[in-house]
Request: fold
Amino acid sequence: MDRLFKGHMKFREEDFESHRELFKELGRTQKPHTLFIGCSDSRVVPNLITQTHPGELFIVRNVANIVPPYRQTEEYVATTSAIEYAVQALEVDTIVICGHSNCGGCAALNLPPEKLDHLPHVRKWLEVSKEVKGRVDRLMTDDSPEEREWLTEQINILVQMRNLLTYPYIEEKYRKGALNIYGWHYIIETGEIYNFNDAKEVFELVS
Ligand code: ZN
Reply:
């Protein structure tokens, strides 16, 4: 596709040229400070919304920014191995779980399973968050689709934050204060991020 090749040439001529030293420095090593776990959604661009450079974020993206609970397994596990590498090998000091508005994966959590017959692996993957719907049902104050969407995305973020702590090495570092864990809800149409405040148990606008 022409757009991709032309875009690459523009990168070489502009952004690469203006950050030549940074890329040279990063050529043989990385020391990211943050593991960023976000949705694969094309509208969520981690480096753009945090204004970070190459080398700063170690990024995992999957459908609905999910963290499977810790388990020892012989399966090929992409998200679990990326978490392990970021925390144990790269020693990041921060983990961000970043959900977002209008998330298709989160919307699917509210659908009857047969609606996902044509997406069997997505359906299986979303089972990690199967408790979300019931929790949202109990929290709903009106019957609006907007409230359901917002709550589903935010409760889903909290489930993943809790799942992170099932990883023994994460739990230990978190308990010692060596690891920060943030839950973010990114709103596509406004560019805003709501950060989960642990003490108050609410998402608050970052400002
Ligand atoms: Zn999404």
User: Anything to note?
Assistant: The pocket of zinc ion is lined by residues 39, 41, 64, 100, 103-105 (CB under 6 Å). The longest strand covers residues 94-100.
